[in-house]
Amino acid sequence: MEHRSGRCAARRAASKGVRAGGGAITEKARARKRRWPVPFTSEHKPVTGATGTAGARLVWRSVPEPTMPRFITLVSVSLIVVLGLTLLPAYADDPMDAPVFHEPVSEDDAAHAELIRTAVFGWKAERHAALEALVERDAKDAIAALIVGMRHVVIDDEVRIALTQLAGEPINNWHDAMLWQERNPQVRAHPAAREIRLRVFMRRDARFMRFLGGERSMPDKMRIRLDEIVWGGVMIGDIPTLDDPIMWLPENATFMADGNLVFGVSINGDTRAYPLRILAWHEMANAIIGDVPVSLAFCTLCGAGILYETDVDGFDEPFTFGTSGLLYRSNKLMYDRQTDSLWNQFSGEPVTGPLAFSGLRLKVRPIVLTTWGEWLARHPDTTVLSPNTGHLRDYGEGAAYADYFASPDLMFPVNVRDESVVARKDRVFGVRDVGIQKAWPIAAFAAEPVINDAIGDRALVLVGDADVGTVRAYERGDREFEQGASTDTLTRDGEPWRITETALVGPDGTRLDRVAGHMAYWFAWDSYFGVTSDLYRPLPVQ
User: Which segments carry the region annotation Disordered (predicted)?
Assistant: First the structure.
């Protein structure tokens, strides 16, 4: 991912104030050299293989104020402010994308909004005075705006101290602040925070207003909080979607090694392999497989490759999806090209835009994570995604996100409710049902490669390989299964049942249907389904 340099416009406030530590602002203090914001730098090393500094936390570095006459400085800065804040970027396709900003309801409200803006965009002395005034007011409604400023505009101790005082707990950095904000949904942001966030997004990429412009980002038009939508470090199109990509026959796939990981899909006899080494650079593939329109949505941050059926009743054509460049709780927000609604990649539901309250939820199709060698042995007639994608990327194994996949750390902040059984980046296999979900730790399959279990009243059998992360789930009725003589069979009462991509097939032809599920890091599953999800407890090691 690529960071684009840019300036957030600094707004000089006319109000006067006092220092955060108390005492009037002295002329000596005013005469000190200011520290000016300059383009972004990365606070930590970018992920190896990612396009640029994916997920790096952005900070401003500071340099002394240039030595030029103060009058010229003020005139120059004023021009920048006018150009940056008045002549906003052109909008992508529709003038309706222009955001609707807050209209103050009173003079006091207008003054409070200006104080919040000054605390984010003001010059150093005025900013610090505004921060102190907000703390004195216990203005928790300013926290969301200060969090935006902490990441995108300027970081100094005064912002951190003010956030700590307003939050009532230590806030040491942007991650701490975002975690606090997620835990405290009862704290409503002042509308000025929305304006500040949208202006910051517009300076990154004006096309973000396709998703959040007009009234789309008004609180009553969204199913998630705007305060928790963060920039992922890329612009729209920087992670290019694969649309009906070229598939090769196995004999042409000499670039693949047996141990390379793939997502395996089979629909109506159309069997395909999508190597992670390619898909990690694109995160989205729209295709028609076995006459069924689907999107394979791969969120690298949460380790989830999910296959969605995109032909939805009531719509003339199947949805196709792209990557927005925005995140919510360390999960990608994808968008549909028909309406520019943002969708939660993990749940398959629209969360902003015209479809936000449509009640839609995409159907999940079976998919499996396995190795190319294992998939090819089971399916010699498979095709495989070609590296000829039309995009220049390093498709070598491990080139994309290798460090992140191997690390226990997250790139973006998200609260994890329960780590008593599995750690935040431990992998789980999850199945969703109406009103209930369940996750099985991949580590459980080391001791139990075949697990007879249930989700609610629905009896399942799961077959897994803990080393690779391969799991398939099937209906089982009242049957109990055991591991078979080979990796592609189970046994019941001594009789073999064949494992296929669509069903378990008994010796008499009885079929037990495959159940859709997918892999994910535990933090993502817990974040989205933790309250309604059950968790399989592995048998104690003997």
Answer: 1-33
Instruction: Tell me if 517 sits within 8 A of 431, measured CB to CB.
Output: yes
- For residues 233 and 1, the answer to whether their CB atoms sit within 8 Å is yes
| Residues 320 and 295 sit within 8 Å (Cβ to Cβ) | yes
Grouping H, G, I as helix, E, B as strand and the rest as coil, residue 357 is coil
Its pTM stands at: 0.81
Q: How crowded is the C-beta side of 192, counted as CA atoms within 13 Å?
A: 24
- Of the listed ranges 153-157, 210-214, 472-476, 486-490, the least confidently predicted one is 153-157
For residues 461-489, one letter each, b for 16 or more C-beta atoms within 10 angstroms of the residue's C-beta and e for the rest, the string is bbbbbbebbbbbbbbbeebebeebeeeeb
Length, in residues, of the chain:
542
Cβ–Cβ under 8 Å, residues 319 and 363: no
Q: What is the mean pLDDT of residues 2-24?
A: 33
Neighbour count for residue 399 (Cβ, 10 Å): 15
CA distance linking residue 229 with residue 328, whole number of Å: 5
Cα–Cα dist 324/237, whole Å: 8
DSSP letters, 10-43, are P-------B-TTSSBPPHHHHHSPPEEEEEEEES
In this prediction, residue 539 has a pLDDT band, given cuts at 50, 70 and 90, of low
Please write the tens of the pLDDT for every residue from 287-306. 999 999 999 999 999 999 99
